[in-house]
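URGENT: need a sanity check before tomorrow's submission.

F., can you look over the 4Fe-4S single cluster domain protein record below? I want to be sure the sequence and structure line up before it goes out.
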Amino acid sequence: MNTSHSFVQKSKGESFVNRSRLFSSFDWTDYKAQLQNRVKGFELERYFDLTESEKIGIENTIRLNVSATPYYISLADPEDPNCPIRKMILPREDECIFSPEESPDPLHEERLSPVKGLTHMYPDRVLLFTNHECSVYCRHCMRGRKVSDSKERMLTEDLEICFDYIKSHPEITDVVLSGGDPLNLSDSKIDWILERLEKIEHVKICRLGTRNPVTLPFRVTFDLCNIIESHNTDRLSIFVILNLITLKNVLPKQKKQF
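Structure tokens as predicted:
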């Protein structure tokens, strides 16, 4: 980001007041409204009592963008810097340091990428990056080199090339859908991707990796579940892989979404 910004000293309790206004400003259970009202970058100071380290992190982050849904912000403690969910949302000073020993691509995914958006690390499986957008940009992300970067956007023609590659390699039986977050795509795009995979005879397993049931549980709609279920057949087994960082993510009101 590397942009000069003057942080404003807030009065005690102001973060709670600002949160109340934000949370009541739209239909809370509408996932599209949640995405439209994501809080980005410096705007987060309205909803957190930031430490000096967090201020430096937001101002100077050198990797992925800083953004979170109002829902996920509601789970984070505005005052406690040790809150695990808060740590997922807000970068800290040490995130701005990149030492010579570090690699932006520690798993060598780019070196093992025969076509844009696909990594073929193991003979029988591939990693397909359906998009590079997330509802929340988690600070630990190992793909910070390209997640949230608009230049990495996966177009339909890019995905077509990926499908052609998979079809030309009959040893591939397992496709992992990743990103970004595949559930940030529209229902119709998810339906199309699963349909294309289902038509590739040697693909038997599809694993869909997502954080949206945690960061945006309202995305798990009946329509989405029906789409996934319609392609989960004897021909293709679909597994949804969920990444939970902390038990604070599992709330009674979320049970239906999970």
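My own read: The first strand starts at residue 39 and ends at 40. The two ends are 35 Å apart (CA to CA). If you see anything odd, call me.
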